[in-house]
Amino acid sequence: MKKLLFTMAFSLIGVLSFAQIEGKWKTIDDETKQPKSIVEIYKKSDGKYYGKIVQLLAKPANANCVACKDDRKNKPLVGLEIIRGLEKDDEEFTDGTITDPKSGKTYKCTITKSGDKLNVRGYVGVSLLGRTQTWHKVN
After folding, report:
1. Dmax (CA) of the chain
2. Which is more confidently placed, 3 or 123?
3. What's the fold here for domain 2-137?
4. Considering the entire predicted model, what is its pTM?
5. CB 132 within 8 A of CB 110
6. Residue 17 pLDDT > 70, yes or no?
7. 70 in helix, strand or coil?
8. Which residues contact 3 (CB under 8 A, 6 or more apart)?
9. DSSP reduced 3-state for 123
10. Which residues pair with 97 in a beta bridge?
11. Around 81, how many Cα atoms within 13 Å sit in the side-chain half-sphere?
């Protein structure tokens, strides 16, 4: 009986941790394959998920988001909220947006988790018209 309870408890923990995207993630540029930054993803009181840059790993041309067109315009990159409004939908996080600080463009965003990696997809219109970056968990 103890073995069964032990197994069930660890199975539940495994299922719960599988769907979690909260924490710090190292972003990898999908074109250059080089680490760019550390983004912290967190859940706000509205129940949605957000992500902000907490550390730069590569020196940008400008330390501010000069290309951003909304309330983030000219804000420092460190502390910049680049993910907004993601909602958990089964094992996927959808219906949010992600902003590319380099271009200032904002895209629809979907995130899926695979072990210690996130597949972060930014797209326009439908998901087929986009690109995916793989982010790695920071311990």
Report:
1. 61
2. 123
3. Lipocalin (2.40.128)
4. 0.84
5. no
6. no
7. coil
8. none
9. strand
10. 84, 108
11. 13
48 has pLDDT over 90: yes
Task: Say how far apart CA 49 and CA 21 lie, in whole Å.
Answer: 9
Res 12 pLDDT > 70:
no
Residue type, 17: S
| Amino acid, single-letter form, for residue 126 | V
DSSP alpha helix (H) spans, the chain: 2-18
DSSP lists the bridge partners of residue 94 as 87
Question: In the prediction, which pLDDT does 1 show?
Answer: 52
- The mean pLDDT value of the chain amounts to 88
Q: Where are the domains of the chain?
A: 2-137
* Per-residue model confidence (pLDDT) at position 139: 85
CA distances from 110 to 1, 85, 98, 115, 118 (A): 41, 11, 9, 16, 10
Q: Which two tokens mark 5?
A: 């309870």
> For residue 52, what are its two tokens?
């902000």
What is the C-alpha to C-alpha distance for residues 60 and 27, in angstroms, rounded to an integer? Answer: 14
